[in-house]
């Protein structure tokens, strides 16, 4: 037993004696060549023939020290643990991570479950326990980007601003909407105020600052129907085209027009050429292919009026009854005529005087 103990002591003595031991304060410094750790100063160890700090320590210029955890002070990046940054004198997590229980946890991306916004990537927020972009932004796969305005290029609807859709690779409103300068809003129905055609639904036009049916249509309820042409059935005036009247259930031309080839043609006035009386205004007749008043009437510029009787005021002879003349703005007979109660007739002469006058004329010849 004594022999074994002596042998162990001898072996230790030989081993220790073979090491070139150097004092801790006198050993080799950082990055110096070494054969073993006993030759290195302080907490340095000999790694691959060089004095270095162990993995969990860093060299601060004089000694190996522990790397700082999140929240602890630092003067340079190297003082912080590998997953930390030295920001404003403090070891902080990278922006892609957040601090939890003194550990840096990777932030969550879009659509991942969260408890608060801190857990989400910097451009995301935690809404209804889901990391997501603000309503004004869209997720492009790595970050949130501002949604695009109308007419900007796009690949999908999410890239377009709220209410816009991606149509033919361009942010546009739906067919049922129009752009009011800020958002897409529903096109307006009949009777609603408008400032441009684009604001009204496809069936309507903007007329007098109100959405209305097309010119050849009328509104029944909330729909537009085509107006009826001449000769077609109707129940009210609005069902007929603008130049027609609903008379006894039939769309007819106005009295100032006549129907020809399913169209209303304006009637002709006095002295215009005609083929039939139907072509002339209602008070005129077509006589010898000319629209004119009947003999008992005169044309006042717009219609035929009955010629005026004896002693009625007048402006011209046409206003006076047949055989009368307009004299001093009054319908009168000629000087050689007299009024017999119906017409102007030639005044009568003394027959004896007439014979004498005729005889004297013959003698003179």
TrEMBL record:
Signal peptide position in this chain? 1-18
Name the UniProt record assigns to this protein:
EB domain-containing protein
Task: State the source organism's domain of life.
Answer: Eukaryota
| Species annotation | Mytilus coruscus
> Signal among the record's keywords?
yes
Keyword terms? Signal
